[in-house]
Amino acid sequence: MTNVSQSEKIALVAISSAITAVLVYRWSKTPGRNVPDEDDFVAHQGEPGAQQQKQGDGDDRHFHVPYIHQRLALWQIRRRSEKLLRNCQQRRTLRFFSNDAVPKDVISNILQTAATAPSGAHKQPWTFVAIKDPRIKQKIRAMVEEEETINYKSRMRKTWVDDLKPMMSSLHQEMAATTNGEASSSSPPPNIRIEKPYLTEAPWLIAVFKQTHGGLDPDTGKRIDHYYVQESVGIACGFLCAAIQNANLCTLTSTPMGAEKGIRELLDRPDNEKLFLLLPVGFPAAGATVPYRNPERKPSSETIVWK
């Protein structure tokens, strides 16, 4: 065998390491391949034993099973909490969206994350409708704009309208004039037309419905009760916003006051579902702006109390 010099050995090792690194990277990027992060951990319910199954009488709500939880090192726990904090601190409500596509599987992951929220008696009283069809989005936008124009003119208190002016002036020139002192009245000009372009510009529009009850029991015909519906769906929407931010996307929580019934009927949802929020989801448009905040949020000393 031909003798190999020391420099040649080093070169061979370097080449071998580079090839290995490329292969590992390509393997990690294979579709469907789940590569755990350094701080990932396992937490799930265990399987019921024979005795538990017997005691349960076929109803899995009647017994408990072990909760399996992998505890991380304290430095990992701290790093995970800091990383999520930094991510969520960058979240802002956005009104200017790009129409760049967002894959359906990403939206599916986001909605499934929202559905992991806790709920009263585990009834999960929510329905998420993910809308991509531009015709449906346009119909929703028309309904919301019509009702919102009425809201600004008569339904909303003057203080409410005033508080919204700095956020909405970039969308409505009439409101910008009022904000800049060119109009003396607290109410918007009578000819103002409220516009919601983000409802059609974002590639996805998510309609969140709360289920006031679970429909009718097929055996008894009685209504299936839900509990703490408002709180449960509100928590799920919090999970939803965090999941959207985590996916490098943006959103806005829109409350379509006055248009709820029309949107529910358009989306063919049952009477026991009430529209809770509309959230456009996508990437920021080129040149997108947000209202200036200084500071961006209240200091923790004003929102957190330690005892």
TrEMBL record:
Pfam families: Nitroreductase. GO terms for molecular function: oxidoreductase activity. Keywords: Flavoprotein, FMN, Oxidoreductase. Residues 90-282 form the Nitroreductase domain. Gene3D superfamilies: NADH Oxidase. Residues 36-61 are annotated as: Disordered. Belongs to the nitroreductase family. This is Iodotyrosine deiodinase 1. It comes from Seminavis robusta. The lineage of its organism: Eukaryota, Sar, Stramenopiles, Ochrophyta, Bacillariophyta.
